[in-house]
Amino acid sequence: MLFLVDYENVGNTGMKGCHYLNETDQVIVFYSEAKKNMERRFLEAVTDTGCVFEVCKLCKNGKNALDFYIVSKLGELFGKGYEGIAVIVSRDNGFQAARDYWDKRAEHRRRVLLAACIEDGIVSSNENSDRTKELKKQRENLTIGGFFADYTEKTRRKSVVKKLFDGTTYEGMTEQIQKIVEIEKKPRIIYLNCLHTFGRDEGLEIYNRMKACGEL
After folding, report:
1. Closest of 28, 25, 24, 108 to residue 71, by C-alpha
2. What is the pTM of this model?
3. Is the pLDDT of residue 184 over 80?
4. End-to-end CA separation in angstroms for the chain
5. What phi-psi label fits residue 52: left (phi over 0), alpha (psi between -120 and 50 degrees) or beta?
């Protein structure tokens, strides 16, 4: 994916989600002397992802000058043969015209998205990728009460597992045991997962301890 960041418009908030970039992405940050600083965490996160990273500083101030830079660069890259999804990261509604042109008027249609931040652009792309699935999961709306109830139950079960295996040869395995309990509540599946994770003998002993305690 191609990300053209109108940094003068979005600032640091536009870089949200930049750690989800990868080596197949290209990011170009357009900025001016008036807004030339970015938080270190975003600059380092972008370069750590391995994406193609560029910056473009405005030469001369003028009304909408940076916007013209962005649409010019977009046309340049499409003209050179880029056929992937392009995301203009900006809150400026004027870029809608650029999207409409490439979607409806251009001889060779191209997909251009508008987003307030990099994360929004990835989600809007609907690409079939792990990062899109992960972001959609992270952005899922949950009821606060329901989440807290699950959290409370998870904490209780964690405490039970810890007490159950403290002082035994399995006390160093409590994190693995806890994960098994969290993944599945059905006794049959817990039993099979214990055997798969710890082997027949140890797995059976661990399962029988949990079954006998009656609190899981």
Report:
1. 28
2. 0.82
3. no
4. 46
5. beta
